[in-house]
Structures are given as structure tokens and as C-alpha cells.
Amino acid sequence: MTEPACTQAVIDDQSTIDMSGYHHYIAMPDLSAFARSGFPYSRMADLSETVVVVPAKSGATQISTYLEMLAAISARSGYPAMGLRLSDNWGEAAKLDADLLVLGSFAPEMRGNRDMNLLLDHSRDWLLQSSNAPENREAIHNADVNDPRNQPASRVEVSAKGPIAAIIGMQSPCHDQRSVVALLASEEGDYQLLRETLNDSGKMDAVAGSVVMIRSSGVNGQMVGDQYFVGNLPWWLMLWFKLSEHPILLAVMAVTGVLLTSFLIWRVLRWAGRRRLAYEQ
Description:
- By secondary structure, this protein is of the alpha/beta class.
- Helices cover 34% and strands 22% of the residues.
- It folds into 2 domains: 25-231, no CATH class; 235-280.
- A 7-stranded mixed beta sheet has the order 3-2-4-9-8-10-11. It has a 3-stranded antiparallel beta sheet with strand order 5-6-7, with no helix packed on it. Strands 1-12 form a two-stranded antiparallel ribbon.
């Protein structure tokens, strides 16, 4: 018996994978995408379409949080953040055509924005809590934010005696195709809690939805607020995507199409039959 030859294969180190033909389209806000891959900032490997907004007077803990977050995103994209822009002026940063990563707190003018789901102010937070909050990451990811049960139903005031931080995802107020992710904290203990979460893969797995509350007891995410979409699709894929949300309508259209096609074929065959009979006569 002859043993088979030892066959080995290797991928040429000069080869490349071209994924430029793929379409990019995603429902936002989706903090699970941010936790897994650093999206939307990692869309450009050098973070050239990212602006980080930091407090004008940042302390050591805030700077450490900022650097650790950038290191995590760069690790996911595989390239250093050479194109990153840094700003301490929310007004100017919001006008730029870029995705914003906010650290610390929102500017005062953003506190009245209808998409603002959470505000932190010295261990006090106000959470627009939905009346039908999903309990796990999969349910949060699949939640329909247009469902009235998932719309902000009440304003709950919570008094926090321990450290508390939050991660919020929302649409940019100035650009429809841009996103804002805010890492909110106020006290030293809050930033420490935020850093521990960002460096803990287990806790980051719980980051999902549009609002994530971080406490010493754990991480809790919810899907509230308005949904928007980032990316582009050809018109035929967009039509299919819209129809996929209405299976009954899609079924009715399919049945109608089959009936119309059958009717046209019947008419053509009937016309052909009459023509043949007329020719034979």
C-alpha cells in the first residue's frame, strides 16, 4: 500500500483580498457594532473620519480613558490612528463631516436634543426608559425601535450612590450619515468604572442597543430613541430590504405577479391558437 504524498499549500504573502464590491448598510444606533469592531470609527483604518471631543481641562484619568479607547479601536482596525482629529469645542466638531467620539459629557446645548437618552451630572442620571426593555443582547439587537412599546415612555430619575457611567449612541445632529458615541462619566470613580468595562471583553459583550448603563453591579443596555441607517444600497436591494419588513405584502405581490404572468401566457397561447386555426382554414 502506497502512502499518499505529503501535500502542503501556502497563501502567497503578496496576495490581497478585494472586498470593495460589497455594499455597506447598517441600522444604527448599534453599540454592539461599536463594542465588537469599533464601528463606525474603524470604517477608515486610520480614523481619518473621526473626531474625538474631550473636555477642555482633561485630567489624567480622562486622558488615559481616551488613549485606551483609541488603542482598542486601532487594534480592531489593525492600523494606528494617524488621521484622528481632536477637539475640545463641541460646536465646531459637530459641524464637521465626521463621526464623533465624545468623552466626559455633552455640551450644554446638546442636553435639550430630543435624541439625548441619558445625561450624567455628578452621580445623578435621567434615563428615558422604554416600557418594554429587552433583557438580553440578542433581544436588544433585534428590538424594533419604531415599536411604540420601545419608545421612551417615562422619565425616571435615579439617584446613584456609587460610581456610574454610560455609553450612548445617536445620530449626528448635523449629518444624517454620521454617528455620535458618547462615553459619559463625571467623577474619578465613574471613569475608572468606564475603563474597567472597556478593557473587559466579558462586559463589552453586554454592550448593545443605543444606551448602556454601567454600574458596579453590571452592564445594562437598552434600545430607545430613533433608528437611522448608515451606508448605501442600489435601488433594487433597497426595495428588497424595505419589502422584507412586510412579509404579507411581499406574499401578496408574489401571488399577484404569478397571476398576471399566467394570464399573459394564457392570452398569448390563445392568440397563437386562433392564428394557427385561421391559417389552416
